[in-house]
Structure formats: structure tokens, C-alpha cells
């Protein structure tokens, strides 16, 4: 047990160091390439920090464990908004642009709704023989992911070209920035893997169920890169990068990760609790509500507190239903 705890601490240290490098390097690339920080956060940072979820979910699908694949993604998306964005907003309010309101947040909502509709089609619509995401639906997810990334790069390039050049605090040379991003991602993924492995061993010794481990410990561990990256980004005044990381991770979790997992093996929703689906839907809609009702187009500290309260309530529900 002591060794597992030490590995847990080492993994966390690697994640924190990796986040520092990733934020500084990706911000420098955004300035040099004329891309918006939001786009860099959504693509390089968002997809990169979602790699632990991809590995965990795809491995679970290949082993025939849909609970791990689905629980990991559902739990991660809930954690990303309620815990990670909540903490980020407490540190510094996160600005929301017009494009975020009209395109990015609605797309996150649509992908979440599509996840529920595909996964619960028999229960909701009486279609098919079971509540399962099939290989065909996984392919649809992947095609939608490619389309969204293409549109985002086109619009993100235009937004970046139209913004004033910031005073560079990161590396001057592009190759140094690229190395920092790659090293940062490596630290996040490897450190997150150490964290997840040790946390799962501790949980299994405590006799916790597979679903509970997937939605809590695995989801927390695989969301650790997003958590530390967003906190570091907020502390450095990179709110757009933090928001892009959250939205990019949530969209990638559904379209890319579950898309790949469903191609490997159909994903059954038989053991998914309705409360889990309600919370993942709520996590998408509360962000839209904050975008349209918050002051000065920001996710403020009040929103952050509300998100954390919802997250705590969800954790209480999970603990009471172990």
C-alpha cells in the first residue's frame, strides 16, 4: 500500500510538471502560428490530455468491458465541467467568446445528446435489440469528429490572425515550443498512467466495484491532465486555453474515444445509471446557461461554486450507491 501511495505522488508530480510545459509551449505555438489560444487548447491540449481516456476506454472495450469504456468517458465529462472548470473559475473567471456561445458549446451539447440517443435508443425510442453503441454509430462519431476539427481549424486560423500579438513569455523558437508540448504531453500521460494504476490497486484492495472505480477513480485519474492543465492555464491568465481544453476534451471523449472503442467492440449501456446520464447532460447544458446568463460573458466564481456543489452532490450519490 505504501509503494502504491508513493507511485501515486510521483505520478501527480509528473502531471504538474507536464502541465507547465504544455501550457507554455502551446501558447507560444499559438502566437507564432497565428492560431487562437482556444483552438490550441481544444486540439493540441484538449486531444492530448484526452489520451489517457482513449487508452483506458479502448483497452476496456477490447477486453469486453463496456462499463470501463463508458463509465470512464461519462465520468470524465462530468468531472471536466463540474470539478475542473469549477475550480478554474474560482481561480480566475473564464471568458466566453461569441464563437464559444454560437458554435463550440452547442456542439458539445449536441455530441452529449447524441451519446445518450445512440446509447439508449431501445429505452428511449424502441429501436434495436439493446441499448448499445454499435460499430456503425462509432464510425458516425469519428466522421463527426473529423468534421468538427476541420471547421474549428478553419475558423480558429481566422480568429488567431485577427488578434493582436501578445508579449511572449514562452520560448522564442518554434522548435523549443514543440519540444515543450511533446514533453508536457508525455509527462501528463505517463504521470496520469502511474496515478491511475496505483489508485486502482488501492481501490481494488478496498473492495470497490468496477463501475465505481471507472466513474470515480479512473475518471478522476484520466482527467488529472485536464485538471492540472486548466489550473495552470488559469493561473497564467490563459482562460481561453483552459476553456478550449474542457470543450475539446469532452467532444473528443465522446466522438473520438467512444467512436474508436465502439469500432473495437459494441458498447452496452445496460449498467449505466440514469443519474449518470442526467449528470453528463447537465454538465453540457449548465455551461451554456453560464455563457448566456453570466456577467461580462464569463464563467464566474459564482458559477464555479455552483459547479462544485453539483459535483459534490454527484459524489455523494455514487458513494451511497456503491
Layout of helices and strands:
Layout: H1 2-33, H2 37-49, H3 51-62, H4 66-91, E1 94-95, H5 98-119, H6 121-125, E2 132-133, H7 135-161, H8 174-205, H9 210-235, H10 239-264, E3 267-268, H11 274-293, E4 298-299, H12 301-320
Helix pairs in contact: 1-2, 1-8, 1-9, 2-7, 2-10, 3-4, 3-9, 3-10, 4-9, 4-10, 4-11, 4-12, 5-10, 5-11, 7-10, 8-9, 9-10
Describe, in plain words, how this protein is organized in 3D.
The chain has 322 residues and is mainly α. The chain has twelve helices and four strands; from the N terminus they run H-H-H-H-E-H-H-E-H-H-H-H-E-H-E-H. It has a single domain (37-166, 209-320), classed as A middle domain of Talin 1 (Up-down Bundle), CATH 1.20.1420. The radius of gyration is 19 Å and the shape is globular.
CATH class: Mainly Alpha
Low-pLDDT stretches are 162-171
Order of helices and strands: HHHHEHHEHHHHEHEH
Q: What share of the residues lie within helices?
A: over 70%
Relative strand content: under 5%
Distance between the termini: 22 Å
Provide the CATH architecture. Answer: Up-down Bundle
Output the structural class: mainly alpha
- Topology-level CATH name: A middle domain of Talin 1
Per DSSP, the total helix count is 12
* Total beta strand runs: 4
